[in-house]
Amino acid sequence: MKxxxxxxxxTECRSCDRLVEWRERIGREKRRSFREWDYWARPVPGxxxxxxxxxxxxxAPAAHGANRTGRVFTGDRSGDWLFAALHRAGLANQPGSTHxxxxxxxxxxxxxxxxxxxxxxxxxxxxxxxxxxxxxxRELEALPRLRAIVCLGKFGxxxxxxxxxxxxxxxxxxxxxxxxxxxxxxxRGPTLIGSYHPSxxxxxxxxxxxxxxxxxxxxxxxxVAG
Length: 226
Fold this sequence. Notes:
It contains eight helices and six strands. It is an alpha/beta fold.
């Protein structure tokens, strides 16, 4: 399935009543600093290079980030860190992204989220996660050159593992536990790479530094080239 068709299906999805109510309520009430914005308030599809060899998977859109801008990781602090790291790695043409028309272009990278709608407290339920899983399966199938996946956080790691199992990849047992800079080369599948999520909780406390995030993309570059 081609990426534009997946994007259309994602943006029209209303499968999860709780998420639909939340994302739309946030879009109406808004944050004071964004009161002039016309919030996206819909599911947020993945974006990037359709010939990507590297996929980045996060948790879900931020309520006042991608749920506002319509592009995953665009307009929030996590995205500030992620796009700056991609720019340092030569994978993005600019070090930040604030809105859909800001000129951001990715090279050899596609970015998506395990859950496409902003969830309350950033915590989707198991049922919501499972309803969204087919979209990630289709995105994987639509990226035939994929060589490596960077999973931002344990939620992303676990969801990618489940999705790869559905896609026919051989998952080692036991699978190494999620950890920062952990890399696993899957049989008949891509290299799976763990990274702490660039959330404020991690970046403000020093659990994740710029050097640590750069290390992840250095590992990814070796996996893609190998």
